[in-house]
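Sequence and structure are kept together here, with a separate record for every protein. An example record follows, reproduced without changes.
>
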Amino acid sequence: MNKSELDPSASPEAEFGAFLRGEREARGWRQGDLATMIGCSPTHISHLETGHRRPTAPVARKLDKAFGLDRVFSNKAHAVQSSTLLEGFPAYVAMESKARELRLFTLGIVPSVLQTTDYARAIAVAAAERGSITEDQAAERVRYLERRKAKLHGEPSQVIHVVMDESCVRRPVGGPAVMAAQFDHLLAFARLPHTVLQVAPYRIGEARAFDLPVNIITLADRSLMSYAESAQQGNLERDSDAVQPMLSSYYQLQARSLSQDESVALISQLREELP
């Protein structure tokens, strides 16, 4: 990532990286100089500064010593580790807004970038009530999603393909009013000129291509990246050759899914059936 591409508000990792870069440059140090001081590679420093790698507690302590600071980096590293964002996800989001084509598949809940604020808040609050995250982390999730959506909506030339498992529209979240607004939002999304919205029905069974959420991005140079995650970890794949089979599976999934007109009809029907 170039300097102009680093957004400190994008994630806790990006905030840490921007602070590290600022402190290093204020002292006139090169990345190699700092790497030598703390016993790591210049590439490691670069990944920290661009938010591609999470700072560990030992590295943060070494940075505090190198810069002569009292637990400043350690406290910032703790904030990163306390974040609910999976490793790899902030780096994916940084590339997501640059994509010319974005393909998403989700199951269980509406894709995050298509969630209304109330829908996203209901999911985050429920996680906090279960004790999975804190209330502060729940609020962070919603704020992060709003920033992410704003970046995507600011790129009108981007084509967005979305395939949702039928469970996404069948599962009630937040009550009838929240679901009504969410359905309306999905229907509005489907009417946009640069979007495709499809539902993968239950009846395709084992022919459904993916069992975990998958995001595939095509960049301006036609290179591919993908992001997939489980409950515990996320993985950003930057090798186009490795992503190509996943893209082929996505095409097959689209072919087996309901058409956009059929998907809109299903969502409209579910909207009408709400109490």
Observations:
- The chain has two domains: 3-82, 89-272.
- The longest strand covers residues 159-165.
- Residues 253 and 272 are 27 Å apart (CA to CA).
